[in-house]
Amino acid sequence: PRIHYALNCAAVGCPNLQPVPFTAENSDPLLESAARQFINDPRGAHVRDGRLTVSKIYNWFAADFGGSEAGVIAHIFPYAAPALRAALQEARGIDRYEYDWRLNGAPPP
Fold first, then answer.
1. Which of 30, 87, 95, 101 has the fewest CB neighbours in a 10 Å radius?
2. Which segments within 9-98 are labelled E, that is strand?
3. E strands along the chain, which residues?
């Protein structure tokens, strides 16, 4: 599933493009870092008023992230920072999927 954090489009809703090329030596740390960055950014996952919203990437590629809402949450959980992790424990599943198709670097509408 971590490959989704590396191979992506240049839309605002995608994980960040990495500033260095992937190599055999740095792939694992870069994938871990990219997963952590995206999951802890509101574009990846956020909880407001007990409602969990995650990126549509987790819906489109659900099979890669455990095949269910519970699988997606189980994937996200170990990467989540303490505040998000606590909020995930209170969430009752995924309430909504979001994605921003605007091009990275494009001015907001």
1. 101
2. 45-48, 51-55, 94-98
3. 45-48, 51-55, 94-98
pTM, entire model:
0.90
Chain center to CA of 58 = 7
Amino acid making up residue 22: F
- What does the buried/exposed string (b/e) look like for 24-50 if buried means 16 or more CB atoms within 10 Å of the residue's CB? eeeeeebbeebbbbbbbeebbbbbeee
Q: Two tokens at 84?
A: 């998000």
Residue 55: closest CA among 1, 106, 8, 100 = 100
The tens-digit pLDDT sequence of the chain (109 residues) is 999 998 878 788 999 888 899 999 999 999 999 999 999 999 999 999 989 999 999 999 999 999 999 999 999 999 999 999 999 998 889 999 999 998 876 666 6
Go through the chain and tell me how many residues it has.
109
User: What strand order describes the sheet that includes 51-55?
Assistant: 45-48, 51-55, 94-98
